[in-house]
Amino acid sequence: MALDSKEVEKIAYLARLQLSAEDSQDVTRRISDILSLIDQMQDVDTADVAPLAHPFDAIQRLRADRVTETDQRDALQTLAPATDRGLYLVPRVIE
Q1: Pairing of strands 83-84, 87-88
Q2: Is the dihedral of CA 86, 77, 72, 75 positive or negative?
Q3: pLDDT, tens digit, for every residue of 47-65?
Q4: What are the CA-CA distances from residue 11 to residues 21, 31, 34 (Å)?
Q5: What does the longest C-alpha to C-alpha distance in the chain come to?
Q6: Residue range 41-49: average pLDDT?
Q7: Bridge partners of 83?
Q8: What count of other Cβ atoms lies within 10 Å of the Cβ of residue 8?
Q9: DSSP SS3 for 67
Q10: First and final CA of the chain: distance in angstroms?
């Protein structure tokens, strides 16, 4: 699929971009190249290819799920200007 200059100018207008005539030709060529690459990629037969979540066969190492720090909420809330039932109270900013 190739674009012509008129289509690129229309897209630029809709995107509120100002392109010179020289830039318009360059952008038209580059977008047409991208679209032809996409057409080539769509022609590839991928029927026998299993879907992948990640291109590499990597395994995420996970750490043990255990508590490493003690609960310091009460100590930290003594530093706050205003708290209520374990929550920090802040001034209202939206009416």
Answers
A1: antiparallel
A2: negative
A3: 998 888 778 877 888 989 9
A4: 14, 11, 16
A5: 67
A6: 91
A7: 88
A8: 22
A9: coil
A10: 52
CA distance 4 to 12: 13
Tokens representing residue 86 in the block: 């374990």
pLDDT of residue 60: 80
Nearest 5°: CA angle at 52, between 50 and 58? 125
DSSP-derived letter for residue 18 is -
Query: Among 6, 36, 38, which Cα is nearest to 24's?
Result: 6
Indicate the pLDDT class of residue 34, thresholds 50, 70 and 90.
very high
Q: Which of 10, 9, 31 is nearest to 19 (CA)?
A: 9
28: burial class by Cβ within 10 Å (0-12, 13-18, 19+)?
Answer: buried
Taking the C-alpha atoms of residue 71 and residue 41, their distance in angstroms, rounded to an integer, is 54
